[in-house]
Design the sequence.
């Protein structure tokens, strides 16, 4: 799941590129290169501000998505307003107007999403909708790639680089093989629930409950099985720390399950907020050690492949 989540993260990074104010001098007399540079600054500076907003309010349910758009919409409006303050040279004016018109249409949809959870969920899943996509494409065609959600996210989209097991000591190779077998079993156990309950993201709270009911015991069994393995002596401390981090995630999943089953949206959002970035950290640690299955999902394995970590979040 987390690669999908991470695609969503790339989307919302581009949603709120806040436009800095411009002086009268900046509104006139811009060359093509000057306009592109100024527009790039608007997008780049705004990205950092929006990332912070996203990190504190990532939506995990349709209801939360509507709340997210309430915070995101004015940020997008500021960005568009900031770009409008930059007067482009004549040879760019028509293309700039078209791109910003698409941005204005996107804002209308974002506003509507603030009061309609179902529409918010659909818009979020559609990565901002066709108008927002047209705006991003128009800006990129104008030479402002900083407004594209894929820019700056190349590392997130690159295939996972796994270590070559042939370079491992016999002890490490055996440990990695046994650990990967555990992760594969956990993945096979939770995948049906993931397909059933998380097909659309973000799902309603009751779907989270259904998924977590399958995830929690599968994770618990996987960790117990890992505890029975003997890592290479020189790696024992590092592996113990890694499994402790995974157990900490397990406790968070249990708390999320309790909140979801009780219908406590506020508690669920508060608990789940730090979980997704933590999952990514633990995933990366599994891959960095040398596991071939445990860790982040490899590119091209989203459909029915093995590549998720034992937390089911890869």
Sequence:
């Amino acid at each position: 799941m987390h690669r999908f989540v991470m695609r969503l993260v790339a989307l919302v990074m581009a949603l709120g590129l806040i436009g800095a104010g411009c002086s009268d001098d900046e509104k006139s007399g811009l060359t093509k290169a000057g306009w592109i540079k100024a527009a790039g600054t608007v997008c780049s500076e705004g990205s950092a501000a929006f990332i912070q907003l996203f990190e504190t309010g990532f939506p995990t349910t349709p209801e939360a998505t509507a709340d997210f758009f309430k915070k995101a919409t004015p940020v997008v409006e500021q960005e568009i307003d900031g770009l409008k303050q930059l007067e482009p040279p004549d040879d760019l004016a028509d293309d700039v107007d078209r791109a910003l018109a698409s941005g204005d249409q996107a804002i209308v949809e974002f506003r509507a999403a603030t009061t309609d959870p179902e529409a918010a969920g659909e818009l979020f899943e559609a990565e901002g909708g066709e108008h927002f996509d047209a705006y991003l494409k128009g800006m990129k065609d104008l030479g402002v790639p900083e407004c594209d959600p894929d820019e700056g996210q190349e590392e997130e989209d690159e295939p996972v680089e796994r270590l070559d097991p042939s370079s491992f000591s016999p002890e490490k190779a055996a440990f990695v093989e046994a650990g990967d077998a555990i992760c594969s079993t956990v993945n096979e156990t939770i995948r049906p629930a993931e397909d059933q309950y998380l097909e659309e993201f973000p799902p309603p709270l009751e779907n989270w409950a259904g998924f977590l009911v399958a995830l929690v015991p599968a994770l618990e069994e996987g960790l117990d099985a890992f505890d029975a393995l003997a890592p290479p002596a020189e790696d024992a401390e590092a592996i113990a720390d890694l499994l402790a981090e995974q157990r900490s995630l397990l406790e968070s999943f249990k708390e999320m399950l309790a909140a979801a089953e009780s219908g406590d949206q506020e508690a669920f959002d508060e608990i789940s907020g730090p979980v997704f970035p933590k999952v990514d950290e633990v995933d990366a640690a599994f891959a960095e050690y040398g596991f071939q299955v445990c860790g982040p999902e490899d590119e091209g394995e989203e459909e029915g492949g093995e590549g998720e970590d034992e937390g089911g979040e890869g």
